Amino acid sequence: MTSPALPRSLASIAALPQADLKSIFVTDPDRLGKLVLTQGPIRFDWSKTHLTDDVLAGFLKLADEQGFAAQRDALFAGEAVNNSEGRAAEHPAERGEGNADSVAHAKMLHQRMRGLIDAIEAGALGDIRHILHIGIGGSALGPKLIVDALDGDGVRYDVAIVSNVDGTALERAVEGFDPNATLIAIASKTFTTSETMLNAASAINWMVEAGVDDPYGKVIALTAAPDKAMEWGVDETRILPFAESVGGRYSLWSSIGFPAALALGWDAFESLLEGAAAMDRHFRLSPQAKMRR
Ligand SMILES: O=P(O)(O)OC[C@H]1O[C@](O)(CO)[C@@H](O)[C@@H]1O
């Protein structure tokens, strides 16, 4: 709930004199020292923004008034901070940070994902060279970002990600894919999203038309609703669940990241989780006034 103090505090920050970039470097020559944060391999530079000591002090006061520190603690404790759904928001647990039970559960599910990846690499599902990832919104954008960003020599499988229900999107995605050597990853937290289920059925048809022996045997489900995936026809051994408390837009860190973990390798996926965990720790442990350092 927004406190009545919020508009007042924001208005007082907005009313502060707007400094121009050239002059704030003259009046505040130590800006680089104060407004650059190096965290692992990432360098954040806020020195070339309108932020001044007064504006920052205003935001810190505002954060205090809004009970920011207590809210942050509640997030990492696994309390129900997602008010609209009445549940926790536990994506940090996927990275090893947060409520101990949730962290242990996420670790166990990651081990399950790793086991399936090892089995695929060992040929348990036949000769696999291509991954067709089907999902929409948060169930597609995270893996797409990672695969696009890290695509290169180290990528062991061709990955195509399809969200659009226009049939040509699927046709284009599988251009050059051998249907017999393709794995279909159906990514849906609810396993009911109509675009995803339609594309999944079309992908199965594509395999059937190409004469693939057991198309359902090439399907992996990435979902928080394993029962729905089973009803749809996915064998339990190829279902990679994740917790309900992981929101769609943050699900990359869960089994939704499967195509990235398979294509880039488990070590790369683990490094991604570790990098995110370092930022979680920074966010959780930095005193508010030092957040930017
Ligand atoms: O993962 P699902 O359940 O298929 O939902 C897909 C997307 O649709 C939304 O529910 C709404 O856009 C997103 O939160 C989610 O990422």
From TrEMBL:
Gene3D superfamilies: Glucose-6-phosphate isomerase like protein, domain 1. The keyword Cytoplasm does not apply. Transmembrane segments: none annotated. Keywords: Gluconeogenesis, Glycolysis, Isomerase. Pathway: Carbohydrate degradation; glycolysis; D-glyceraldehyde 3-phosphate and glycerone phosphate from D-glucose: step 2/4. Signal peptide: none annotated. Its EC number is 5.3.1.9. InterPro entries: G6P_Isomerase (IPR001672), Phosphoglucose_isomerase_CS (IPR018189), SIS_dom_sf (IPR046348), SIS_PGI_1 (IPR035476). It comes from the Bacteria. It catalyses: alpha-D-glucose 6-phosphate = beta-D-fructose 6-phosphate. Belongs to the GPI family. This is Glucose-6-phosphate isomerase. It comes from Sphingomonas bisphenolicum. The lineage of its organism: Bacteria, Pseudomonadati, Pseudomonadota, Alphaproteobacteria, Sphingomonadales.
